[in-house]
From TrEMBL:
This is TspO/MBR family protein. It holds the Pfam family TspO_MBR. It comes from Peribacillus simplex. Its main location: membrane. The lineage of its organism: Bacteria, Bacillati, Bacillota, Bacilli, Bacillales. Gene3D superfamilies: TspO/MBR protein.
Length: 125
């Protein structure tokens, strides 16, 4: 199963990319993504725990989580940079919609999701 991991040589690939001077070093990504996924999990838990109907919000969340997973394969494993860029646009749209739906159910979860959206936009290429 590990052979299908998109991470392979992602650090080496990232280090070889043409980046602006303000690009973060590669060691920051595991720290940032661990924090982001923790916040995302807490937000989803809060939504799932509410008595309000949250099926559409949870479907949006699950879909954007799947696209998030797919992006690493597109960019690092398969080297499809253009496709990864288009997929990222769809992903950011779904994250925004998820944050909006979460906000209608639970303000804290919606604000947390929108914060994650802004962090992902900044890590785009």
């Amino acid at each position: 199963m590990w052979g299908y991991s998109p991470q392979g040589d992602s650090k080496g690939i990232y280090d070889k990319l043409k980046k602006p001077a303000f690009a973060p070093p590669s060691w920051t990504f595991p720290v940032a993504w661990t924090s982001l996924y923790t916040i995302m999990g807490i937000a989803k838990y809060r939504i799932a725990s509410k008595e309000k109907d949250s099926k559409s919000a949870e479907l949006l969340y699950d879909t954007q989580l799947g696209l998030n997973f797919l992006w690493s394969f597109l960019f690092f494993k398969w080297g499809l940079r253009g496709t990864a860029f288009i997929e990222m646009a769809a992903l950011l749209t779904l994250i925004t919609l998820t944050a909006f739906e979460f906000y209608k159910i639970d303000r804290t979860s919606g604000l947390a999701s929108e914060t994650i959206n802004h962090k992902k936009e900044r890590t785009l290429y």
